[in-house]
UniProtKB/TrEMBL annotation:
Pfam families: Endonuclease_5
Feature: compositional bias, Basic and acidic residues: 1-17
CDD domains for this protein: Endonuclease_V (cd06559)
Biased composition range(s): Gly residues: 307-317
Biological processes per GO annotation: DNA repair
Function statement: DNA repair enzyme involved in the repair of deaminated bases. Selectively cleaves double-stranded DNA at the second phosphodiester bond 3' to a deoxyinosine leaving behind the intact lesion on the nicked DNA.
Gene Ontology CC terms: cytoplasm
Enzyme Commission code: 3.1.21.7
Listed name of the protein: Endonuclease V
Database matches in PANTHER family: ENDONUCLEASE V
Stretches with biased composition (Polar residues): 33-45
Residues annotated to bind Mg(2+): D81, D149
Length: 341
């Protein structure tokens, strides 16, 4: 990754309060360059049926750039993750921006709201997009690369969350999944850096990558404006000590703590039917490095997602991924992951 970069702490608007997406209040200037209108468009254009959602994917899929090559030495990389309440009707989305020279969090933002779509395998992006875009719009530093906790091309319709976010934001994006959504593969060698192709219906849609010796691999796929080789290189650079990228680890902690704070507060987003139209999303921008939101929270993972520190090879409850050492034909070859992309 890059050498040391001068990553000065950005100025923050400490008076900025949570805002409701679709409201009249204007947010402070952001690094994403999209502003409130971009988020409003995404919220109000949310599909209401499975057929409408599939049509959106079909319309946006040709816009993906799957060759890149993308940034080789990005100075800043963002991780994105979402945590859900046990009830499934409240979520917290988080984005953390890391300095790739030090892995220090130099910017971050969270949003809390209701899922914007039903729980449908292959359409999971529609549940989370409004909240993730709201969090992205709260950043004061524009990241050079998005690393999504999910999939990109390795998707039944070749348009997972990483593709969707990349196309909407225009940023290079990759997906790093804990478990596969599609495809067959052979187990890579036990050494860190070993990989094998992830193949679905005769097409290579990703790479099964070992990021730690003897620990189960991750599933890397291109989202937008990246090559697969470069995506693999970036994931290896972001995993110096653990199975999962540092971007995912920091975003995971932040969204879990944001969810816990929301559940402890009386000011929850307005209730409403889940997956039947636009959701309310409250945004908290730029909480900043060293904030309590980066603590070791442990509540509210995605449905079926038990979290992962990268310390061991076990799958954990609710995770259908096969045990290390299994080949094609394991449980994950036959069924979709518990947390679909």
């Amino acid at each position: 990754m890059a050498g040391h970069h001068d990553m000065r702490e950005p100025e923050r608007n400490d008076q900025h309060v949570p805002t409701e997406v679709g409201g009249n209040e204007q947010p402070p200037p952001t690094a994403m360059g999209q502003g409130q209108r971009q988020i409003q468009d995404q919220v109000h254009n949310q599909p209401r049926t499975v057929a409408e959602a599939v049509a959106v994917q079909d319309r946006l899929r040709p816009l993906t750039d799957l060759t890149g090559p993308g940034p080789r030495r990005p100075a800043t990389v963002a991780g994105l993750d979402v945590a859900y309440a046990e009830s499934g009707d409240l979520l917290a989305a988080a984005v953390t921006v890391l300095d790739t020279a030090t892995f220090a969090v130099v910017d971050q933002a969270v949003s809390v709201g209701r899922p914007a779509f039903g729980y449908v395998p292959g359409l999971f992006a529609f549940r989370e997009m409004p909240a993730l875009l709201a969090a992205l719009d709260g950043l004061t530093i524009r990241p050079e690369l998005l690393v999504c906790d999910g999939h990109g091309l390795a998707h039944p319709r070749r348009f997972g969350l990483a593709c969707h976010l990349g196309v909407v934001t225009g940023l290079p994006a990759i997906g790093v999944g804990k478990t596969p959504l599609v495809g067959e593969w052979t187990e890579p060698a036990r050494e860190r850096g070993a990989s094998t192709p992830l193949v679905d219906r005769g097409e290579t849609v990703g790479r099964v990558l070992r990021t730690r010796d003897g620990v189960k691999p991750v599933f890397v796929s291109v989202g937008h404006r990246m090559s697969l080789d470069n995506a693999v290189d970036q994931v290896l650079a972001l995993t110096p000590s653990y199975r999962l990228p540092e971007t995912t680890r920091t975003a995971d902690r932040l969204c879990r703590d944001a969810l816990a704070a929301a559940l402890a507060s009386a000011a929850l987003p307005a209730a409403g039917p889940v997956g039947t139209g636009p959701s309310r999303v409250d945004t908290i921008a730029g909480s900043g490095p060293g904030d309590a939101a980066t603590g070791e929270g442990d509540s509210g993972a995605r449905p079926g997602d038990t979290g992962d520190t990268g310390e061991g090879a076990g799958s954990g409850p609710g995770d259908p991924s096969r045990a290390a050492g299994g080949g094609p034909g394991g449980a994950a070859d036959r069924t979709a992951a518990a947390r679909p992309a």
